[in-house]
Predict the structure.
Amino acid sequence: ALSITTKLSATSVAAPATVSDSATLTGASSTAGGSLDYRYYASQSACQADASAFPGSNPSGGTDVGKVTVSGGVVPKSASATFHNEGTYYWAAFYSGDANNKAAVSGCGTELLVVSQAAPSVSTSLSAGAIPIDTSAYDTASLSGASSTAGGSVDYRYYATQAACTADTAGTAGTDVG
């Protein structure tokens, strides 16, 4: 019986991350042709709904990562997909079959991608290093390693000493400037 095995380029990543999938046909003729459609889903039940309706209905749920042409039994890897949000994603591969090989779909629970939150770092830049009394300065912040969809807020504070700043692990001491 023809079956499909798949292998993700990574199975556990921090957002943002780019992942691709590859598939191998087992039990197909050496001249197998046709096409293979790579998809991922936010839930196993959504993946199974498409898988159980296939080949009578083409997959329509999830996110299509691209259809590739199978030639000589060789399946090209999928396009890359970038994940910006944390979650578990269920991957499946749908093989169209050809004149000598039946259509097949991989299992929905065998290829899981777990995307965890990004762990960005924050750097700041003060508008002036030293200023005269009764003048102002401002600070700007930059995130590194954050998802491109990063949101939230930044709380700017200043402290009289380095020790006071270091001790404020909750971010509630010092002088809040917005």
The two ends are 65 Å apart (CA to CA).
